[in-house]
Recover the amino acids of this structure.
């Protein structure tokens, strides 16, 4: 499922911003955009993301904005060095008879006079508050995903209902298939001029063998079991952060349903049933596409 979450947190004069974005992906994959001073927490960030997000291509961006006060404090001027430089330069100017045009801008060009303290040491201590900010962004991210999850769940439940209706029609048609075959076989034999009565043992055996080969009771039973489990999985998937992911379980159940419906199609030997099997497979494919977006 797609999703977006953002959080901000201030700590020690530094504003931490964490932004999460995700697009559909069959597996979990994360791309981190984290300042170099926080690379020490990369593994922890990935672990926290994967613990709450089972599927999706997730982008996590962390930004640190140092306040103006911190930047001002970081600027250092060596006043003793400045005084020594000014005294020596003016002394030299007088000895050489030069005009005293010494300015602050000229002093700024002197190496080592003005330095900026490294604020990265302060930023490197922001690991714990950054993780806290990540958790807040995750909360917003999962709340957004929950809305989409509910919509996807309703759509899949409805499509499973359509598929279940087709399965019921196939099961209802099954008892008629042997009788249709018997009538068609009698018609072919009569057309060929082969005398064969309704109670002929050979006809009864042939119809019985056909009925045994085309029996789909087991397949229908398993399909209904898979459908019940799929509905149960969707009903139990609560839209909270700790919810158990159901996407892979639904993937497996759909594979089994495809297998059973294919078996029915190969066993039925009936045009009407074959048409319903095609419709059932089309509906399963629509469900499968939606399930790819379900965590």
């Amino acid at each position: 499922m797609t999703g977006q979450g953002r959080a901000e947190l201030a700590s020690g004069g530094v504003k931490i911003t964490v932004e999460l974005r995700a697009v559909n992906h069959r597996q979990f994959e994360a791309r981190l955009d984290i300042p170099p001073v926080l690379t020490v927490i990369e593994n922890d960030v990935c672990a926290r993301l994967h613990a709450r997000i089972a599927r999706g291509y997730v982008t996590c961006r962390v930004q640190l904005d140092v306040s103006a006060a911190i930047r001002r404090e970081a600027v250092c001027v060596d006043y003793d060095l400045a005084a020594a430089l000014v005294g020596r330069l003016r002394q030299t100017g007088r000895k050489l008879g030069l005009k005293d045009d010494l300015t602050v801008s000229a002093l700024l060009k002197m190496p080592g006079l003005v330095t900026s303290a490294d604020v990265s040491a302060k930023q490197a201590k922001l690991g714990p508050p950054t993780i806290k900010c990540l958790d807040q962004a995750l909360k917003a991210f999962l709340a957004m995903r929950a809305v989409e999850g509910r919509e996807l769940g309703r759509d899949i439940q409805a499509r499973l209902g359509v598929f279940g209706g087709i399965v019921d029609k196939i099961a209802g048609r099954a008892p008629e298939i042997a009788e249709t075959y018997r009538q068609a076989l009698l018609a072919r034999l009569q057309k060929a001029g082969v005398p064969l009565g309704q109670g002929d043992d050979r006809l009864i055996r042939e119809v019985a063998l056909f009925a045994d080969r085309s029996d789909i009771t087991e397949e229908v039973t398993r399909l209904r079991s898979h459908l019940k489990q799929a509905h149960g999985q969707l009903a139990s998937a609560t839209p909270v952060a700790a919810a158990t992911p159901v996407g892979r379980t639904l993937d497996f159940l759909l594979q089994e349903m495809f297998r059973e419906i294919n078996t029915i199609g190969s066993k039925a030997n009936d045009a009407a049933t074959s048409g319903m099997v095609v419709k059932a497979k089309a509906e399963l494919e629509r469900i499968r596409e939606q399930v790819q977006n379900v965590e």
The beta strands are 3-11, 14-23, 28-33, 56-66, 75-77, 114-116.
